Prior knowledge:
The longest helix is centred in the N-terminal third of the chain and has 35 residues, at 30-64. This protein has a domain at 36-115. It has helices at 6-28, 30-64, 70-87, 91-101, 103-113. It contains five helices and no strands. 57% of the residues lie in helices and 0% in strands. The radius of gyration is 27 Å and the shape is elongated. It is mainly α. The protein starts with 5 loop residues before the first helix and ends in a 59-residue tail after the last helix.
Amino acid sequence: MRLSLIPIAIFLMPLAEIAGFVVVGKAVGLWATLGLVILSAMLGAALLRIQGTGILRRISQETQNGGIPSRDLVHGAMIVVAAFLLLLPGFITDILGLLLFLPPVRDLAWKYLSKRIVVLGSSSAFRGGSRGGPKPQSGPRPAGPVVDLDQEDFQREPNRNSPWSDKKQLGD
Length: 172
């Protein structure tokens, strides 16, 4: 969707939701319509809990194996968006939210988005290694001289002219 169409869609969406309430309300009645709205919000919360824990488990397993869980991260984001759409009152957002909870729809969206999203794994969280210990270096070390300093070689003298120093300054 072009960026210039997004404000129009944001403006028209509440109108479409109101029209959806009127159509469903005429077909099933007021109380059934309100019950469907509340049921969809509860369904969104339950589906977020069920599918969200599965996605988090797969992300954790992928990172422990040293991989970059780009697909699972995007699927997790889509599940959060789907749950948010189900929590919003309205039948159009509920339909979009339910569609995003379906793995084939998320795979189709991932196929479209994977060309536009780049997930970089430069963080130490994406490298393998034992928990809590130092992570192994991935790739060659950067070129340049290595300077090994002992405690005696490196000492920092306090700057007496610093405004943050407790010592008297030269002008005092």
